[in-house]
Structure formats: C-alpha cells, structure tokens
Write a structure and sequence with these properties.
The chain is built from three helices and five strands; from the N terminus they run αβββαβαβ. By secondary structure, it is α+β, with helices and mostly antiparallel strands. The protein has one domain: HIT-like (HIT family, subunit A). The longest helix is centred in the middle third of the chain and has 17 residues. The structure holds adenosine monophosphate.
Length: 115
C-alpha cells in the first residue's frame, strides 16, 4: 500500500494546484516552488511512490508520462530552446514527495552537473 501524499490530494482536488494538463493516466501542474521560469510536474494518477517501485505493468504509464512531458514542453513554448526532465528517486536522489513525478524545467539555461 502506498502512502497518501499531497499529490494524491491534488488529483482528488482536495488542495489547489495550477493544473496545465489532465488525462486518464496523468496530471500535470506547476511546481509551487519553481526552479526555472517553467517548472511543471507530471504525475501518474496511479500512486506509484517512486521510480524504483515501478514494474513492467507500469510501462505504458511511464511512456505516456514521458510523451506528455514532450507535448507540454511544446505547448508551453520551451521545446525549441531545450529543457530538462528530472525524476528524483529516493533519499539520495532528493525525492521529497513519494508519489512518482517527472519535473519539466525550462525557460533558462540549466547547469550541469546538478548539486
Ligand atoms: P521532489 O523533491 O522531486 O520530490 O519534488 C517535489 C516537488 O513538489 C518540489 O519541487 C516541490 O516544490 C513540489 N511541491 C510540493 N508541494 C507542492 C504543491 N502543493 N503544489 C505544487 N508543487 C508542490
């Protein structure tokens, strides 16, 4: 059983979010603490806690999320200049919300390596 998180509450509309996309599989909303001019989170409606918990049965969900990120980048006008997609996983990965999510970051030049 996965824990209920703030992202599950956003899916259920129990807390507000600036939602930019929703379909049967995933939800996308702006990060409350943006690290770039465009910073959107894409989450599956299925509450997979972290990437390490995903299994073969989640293949379609993960592929769908990634293609949604690509479409969002185009729709939000950051695709041409480029952008970054990040999945923080577990403690060393810097994950703070244990409902799998992809960060879509763009609108400025991003540095590498990350901290
Ligand atoms: P991570 O550190 O990869 O787990 O990322 C969690 C992200 O969720 C952070 O970038 C937070 O700023 C973001 N976040 C936390 N609570 C909310 C919220 N209520 N609405 C939007 N973004 C949130």
């Amino acid at each position: 059983m996965s824990e209920d998180t703030i992202f599950s509450k956003i899916i259920r509309r129990e807390i507000p979010a600036d939602i930019v996309h929703e379909d049967d599989v995933c939800l996308a909303f702006r990060d409350v603490s943006p690290q770039a001019p465009t910073h959107v989170l894409v989450i599956p409606k299925k509450p997979i806690p972290k990437l390490a918990d995903a299994g073969p049965e989640d293949k379609e969900i993960l592929g769908h999320m990634l293609l949604t990120v690509k479409d969002l980048a185009e729709g939000l006008g950051i695709a041409e200049d480029g952008y970054r997609v990040v999945i923080n996983t577990g403690q060393n990965g810097g994950q703070t919300v244990f409902h799998l999510h992809m960060h879509l970051l763009g609108g400025r030049s991003l540095q590498w390596p990350p901290g």
